[in-house]
Amino acid sequence: MSLDGFNPNPSFSSTLGGIQPAFYLAQGFPSYATASNVSVGADNGLSPLYRPKDANRLSYSQQWNLTIERQVTRDVVATVAYVANKGTRLPSQLLPLNVLNPSLLSMGNKLKDTFGPSSTAVDGVPVPYAGWVQQLSGHCEPTVAQALLPFPQYCNSLTGENENLGSSTYHSFQTKIEKRFSSGLYLNANYTWSKLITNASSTTQATAQYGAIGSVISPFDLRRNKAISTDDIPHNFAVMAVFELPFGKGRHFLNRGGITDKALGGWTLSSTAKITSGEPFYFRSGTCNVPGQFREQCIPGVLPRANPFAQSLGNFDPNKPLFNVSAFDPATSFNYYAGVGQRVTSYRGFGYKGQDLSISKNVHITERIKVELRGEMFNIWNAHFFTCGGAAFGDCVPFNNDVSSPNFGLWQGTVTNPRNIQLVGRFTF
């Protein structure tokens, strides 16, 4: 059957502005004309957004575990478990398009030579196209490094919006002992031994607002991105206990009413304690002459058999450097050289030890009137830990980690909160 002149709805005869709506396949689709204000070079000299074709794929995680639980006594239960997690398609900024191969660092100072308005070539590198220098004016320098980029007309790295190439793996061994509340005592103690590695932690994100800003590892060397996460805490022990003091009416000692019970009876003591490993350190070099077009940071390595610590963590003097600069790649070697150190090292900072204590009592004056007395002590041992923002944990290094800085290794952060005691009285009626 021929479709020439076929009207799919001959009875439809409404008129819109004198035009009879009809559909003729034989005439094809209307021609498309690009708007006069649109040009393929409209973003030249700028920093356009780029979205990969596979962006916005949903991230997902897979979890698995093997748990063995056994009742030891009538009130005590012990648990042993292997718990794991794998994250896939995590948000990342690992693969910018506009980046130079690290092999070009061999050009040294030539990479920073600039093109003039009438230059046709510099150091044997031709100008990308006529008018290139003028288009970059006011946006980025027309250097040799810029001219060598895959897209020299753009001033940014063309890092994919909503890129999701990241992954993570977590493995842990977990144990727990719980004594259910009986005879005035409840106890819960747990310990976790774990490892978390990833290539998509915040230190690889160009939007990070701390010491690891920018593309950390060149996309030509992606395998080095897989490292311990800055959130990796391998040892984590916590215990919680609640104990009703055995004094007063109905208790083992001073089992009587009256003033004795009002004063000494009914008190409950509770406490929580936590002990963890320290967070891992990462190191950088702030002066290595690597142009930004390589989209990588300069990462010094620890020399073989060298100790990166200048002093003991257990006897730390905050007025002296924590790190030994001679244990790292010499800062003088960072000249058009990005280093081969680990993105995040296995060297760790101060562990955390903290304990809180609370004692409370409810006093019933009458059936409807009650007084609650409570005393709380946070950080009872007045322990101090060197951090970035005053909290016990944080994705940062509270020490200068730039091997090229004269202040390398010096403490530049804050400490955790000191001991805090508060007394509370509450009257309920």
Task: Explain what you see.
The chain contains 3 helices and 14 strands. The protein has helices at 132-136, 144-147, 258-264, and strands at residues 60-71, 76-90, 121-122, 125-126, 166-182, 185-198, 227-228, 235-244, 267-276, 352-364, 370-378, 386-387, 414-415, 420-428. It is mainly beta.
Instruction: Name the average pLDDT.
Output: 85
How would a textbook summarize the main sheet? 10 strands, antiparallel
Q: Which shape, going by the Cα principal axes?
A: elongated
Unreliable stretches, pLDDT < 50, 5 or more residues?
A: 1-21, 205-214, 390-394
Distance between the ends = 91 Å
In what range is the share of β-strand residues?
25-35%
Computed over alpha carbons, the radius of gyration is 33 Å
How many beta-strand elements?
14
Note the main attributes of this structure:
ten-stranded antiparallel beta sheet; two-stranded antiparallel ribbon; 28% strand; elongated
Provide a short characterization of the protein structure:
Strands 1, 2, 5, 6, 7, 8, 9, 10, 11 and 14 form a ten-stranded antiparallel beta sheet that branches. A two-stranded antiparallel ribbon has the order 3-4. The chain has a two-stranded antiparallel ribbon with strand order 12-13.
